[in-house]
Design goal:
Blueprint: E1 7-11, H1 16-27, E2 31-36, E3 42-43, E4 46-47, H2 52-58, E5 65-70, H3 76-90, E6 95-98, H4 113-141, E7 144-149, H5 168-188, E8 193-199, H6 206-211, H7 213-222, H8 234-241, E9 252-254
Parallel strand pairs: 1-2, 1-6, 2-5, 6-7, 7-8, 8-9
Antiparallel strand pairs: 3-4
Helix pairs in contact: 1-8, 3-4, 4-5
């Protein structure tokens, strides 16, 4: 798919899945604005690990281009600036990928207010700000695609199942994100703007291995799901970039379900 001429914002693109999205879109010729809290820098001739600088360096030979912008989704002004600067520099915004999120485990009965607020603000309020801002420009264009990265945890939780325990906060923020996806799809349908969600399933990332070590061991031992790599998720995001409200909107694309193996 040729995305030459398309301007795409990927929030949460400094490493892992977000970086893979940025690279996949740039590989199809898109101009990608990769955003995260900090840019990073070059040290001893090499980019700092897990930074936007590394995202740019590792994607420098792709057909499209990747440009880094700092943005903390906790700060409304940062999100507004990100979108305004993107439009000022490149003339438009054709797609938004909302990937930034906190993924962590917390005892259901021991969550304090700061932890609760942080998850709600990063996983839900931040995506709202980004959707609100890009929609202003997309409505004038009468085109665009918004993709929210969600999770199967939004709809299921099994006590004692590896990877499901202590996931109340993550699960309910993703469930709310799904509802917001649907609401925005209805609001923006008349402008031809597609709003969908992508649920990646089990993905073999450093974050998953670090936070879900028991689940990773269980998956590998029982062969419940062979997790895909971040790079394998580029194709569905590229596909969603082509959709309009007439072809696909208000939907959640599930890449895999627990209990099913990858082919």
């Amino acid at each position: 798919m040729n995305l030459e001429g398309k301007v795409i914002i990927v929030i949460g693109a400094s490493y892992g899945i977000g970086r893979a999205y940025a690279h996949a879109l740039a590989a199809e010729g898109a101009t990608v604005v990769a955003a995260a809290r900090s840019l990073g820098k070059i040290e001893n001739g090499k980019p700092q690990k897990d930074t936007l600088v590394e995202t740019i360096e590792t994607g420098k030979d792709l057909p499209g281009s990747i440009h880094a912008k700092s943005c903390d989704v906790l700060v409304e002004a940062d999100v507004v600036r990100l979108v305004d600067e993107t439009v000022a520099e490149f003339g438009r915004v054709d797609m938004l990928v909302n990937n930034a999120a906190i993924y962590s485990h917390h005892d259901t009965f021991e969550i304090d207010q700061p932890t609760w607020d942080q998850h709600m603000n990063v996983n839900l309020r931040g995506p709202y700000f980004a959707m609100r801002e890009v929609s202003r420009h997309m409505k004038r264009q009468k085109s665009g695609s918004i993709v929210n990265i969600t999770s199967a945890m939004a709809g299921s939780s099994v006590k004692g199942h590896a990877g499901h325990d202590d996931m109340l906060l993550y699960g309910i923020t993703k469930a709310a994100l799904n509802r917001m996806t649907h609401f925005f799809s209805e609001e923006l349908k008349e402008y031809g703007i597609a709003v969908n969600a992508l649920s990646p399933g089990a993905v073999d990332t450093e974050t998953w291995n670090r936070h879900d070590a028991p689940a990773v061991a269980d998956f590998k031992a029982q062969g419940l799901v062979r997790p895909c790599t971040p790079e394998a998720l580029g194709a569905p995001v590229v596909s969603l970039a082509s959709h309009t409200a007439e072809s696909l909107t208000g939907q959640t694309l599930h890449i895999a379900e627990h209990g099913k193996s990858w082919n």
